Amino acid sequence: MDNRNLQTPSQTIGPFFAYGLTPTQYDYEFESWVDNNMVADLDAPETIEISGSVFDGEGKTINDALVELWQDDGEHKLYGRFGTGTDEKNRFIFKTIKPKSVDGQAPFINVILFMRGQLLHTYTRIYFDDEANLNQSDKILNLVESERRNTLIAKKTEVGYTINIHMQGQKETVFFDL
Amino acid sequence: MSDIIQTGFDREIQPNYLYEGYKSTLLRAPTKPLIMPKKADLTLSGPVFKDFELGALDSDLTKNAVKNGEPLGERIVVHGKVTNEKGHPIPYTLLEIWQANSSGRYIHKADQHNAPLDPNFSGAGRCMTDAEGNYKFYTIKPGAYSWGNHPNAWRPNHIHFSLFGGDITSRLITQMYFPGDPLLEFDPMVQSIPLKGRDLLISKFDLALTEPDFALGFRFDIVLRGHHATPFENQ
Ligand SMILES: [Fe+2]
C-alpha cells in the first residue's frame, strides 16, 4: 500500500437511519432524494418489481436493513434504496427494469446491504432464473460452488422477481469481497 | 474506466463483520468465506444518480427543522475534504448525515432512550462536496445516549455519515466522533476498528473554522476507496 491515504473506517448504519436516508418512505418530514422507484415510468411494460426479505441467523426477518440496488448495463445506470421497516412483511420492494446482458455475462443487479449489526456493509448480486444458459456460463457465478449459486438467483413471479437474502445459516446468501 | 486502481477493504483498518463486543453482529455477520472476483471481471462504473436539488437549508441542521424557535445545544460547524486513496479530491459527491439531538435523542420512532425530543431539531441533513472535494454543514453537537448492548452501555457523541464516491466500492457509511470524549474507549463500535484506523473517525477541533459568537468548528476528512470521479449529474 505505497503512499496511499488510509481508508476511512466503516461503522454501522445503526437502527435509526430512516429519517435521514429514507425519510419519505418512513413518513418523516425531510424529503427523500431517491427511493425504490428506479424508473420514471412505473407502468411501462418493461417495468418489473423485485422483492424479498432479509433474514438473520435465527431465520427472523430483519426489519431495520437498508437495501440498495445498483445496476448498469451500459444503457441504463440505475440506483434505488429501500428500508425493510415499512412493508407489513418487512420486505424490500423495488420497481426497475431487468438489465441486459453485457459482453456475454449473465444479467445481474448489484446489491449493497446495510443494517444494525453490520460494521461493514455487504455486497451481493441478483441474477435471474429465466437466464439459465447465461447463468451457467457466467464467470462470476462460476466462482461460487454450485450448491450455493441459487442463493443469488431470483425467481420469476407474475410481476417481476423475488429473492430472499439470508445473512447466515444453511441458506446463507453468497456475499462478495469487492 | 481504465484509471481505476481498485483496492479492497483495508483489513488493517476496517472492522470485521463479526465483532463479539457488538452483540448484534452475532446473527448478522456472514459466516461463509466471501467470494472475491477478479477485478477485470467486474463492471464497476456506477449508476448516474438522477438530478435533484439540494434544499437551501439541507446543510444547516440548526435551521432546517425549526418550528417555533432555535434548537437547544451547542452549535457546531463541521467541514472536511473527501478524497480517494491517492489523495485526489472527490468533487460533487453527496454526503448524507443524521444524528441525535443535544440530549442524545433521535427523532426516529423506535428510539426509546429516555431523553427529550427537541421540537426544533430533526438531525437529518445533506450536502455536496465542492469542486475541490470540500464539504461543510452546520448542526448542534449531538449528545451521548445509552443503548442495550451491555449493562450501562453509552454511545459517545457521534454524527452518522453516508457517502458515495464513484462506484459501489467507494460507498461508505460511517460515524464521526469528537476529540476527548471519555466514552470512546468503552464503545464497541469504536473498539471494533483495528488500532491503526481508530483515530481516523475522531474529528479535530478547528479554531480557524470556529465562527466567532456562533459555532465551534470541527474538521473531519474522509478517504473513500476506489478511484474515479463523481457520477452525480448536478455539479
Ligand atoms: Fe447513532
Automatic annotation (TrEMBL), chain A:
**UniProt feature coiled coil, ranges:** none
Q: Which GO terms describe its molecular function?
A: iron ion binding; protocatechuate 3,4-dioxygenase activity
Q: Which Gene3D superfamilies match?
A: Aromatic compound dioxygenase (2.60.130.10)
**Which keywords belong to this entry?**
Dioxygenase, Oxidoreductase
Q: Which domain of life is it from?
A: Bacteria
Q: Does the keyword Oxidoreductase apply?
A: yes
PANTHER family assigned: DIOXYGENASE, PUTATIVE (AFU_ORTHOLOGUE AFUA_2G02910)-RELATED, PROTOCATECHUATE 3,4-DIOXYGENASE ALPHA CHAIN
According to UniProt, the name of this protein is Protocatechuate 3,4-dioxygenase alpha subunit
Species in which this protein is naturally found: Arenibacter echinorum
TrEMBL record, chain B:
Q: This protein's superkingdom?
A: Bacteria
Q: Which residues form the signal peptide?
A: none
Name one process (GO BP) from the record.
3,4-dihydroxybenzoate catabolic process
Query: Start and end of every Intradiol ring-cleavage dioxygenases domain?
Result: 78-106
SUPFAM superfamilies named among the record's database cross-references: Aromatic compound dioxygenase (SSF49482)
Which keywords describe this protein according to UniProt?
Dioxygenase, Oxidoreductase
> What's an example of a GO molecular-function annotation for this chain?
ferric iron binding
| A Pfam family it matches | Dioxygenase_C
Family statement: Belongs to the intradiol ring-cleavage dioxygenase family.
Tell me which NCBIfam families the record gives.
protocat_beta
Q: What is this protein called?
A: Protocatechuate 3,4-dioxygenase beta subunit
Species this protein is from:
Arenibacter echinorum
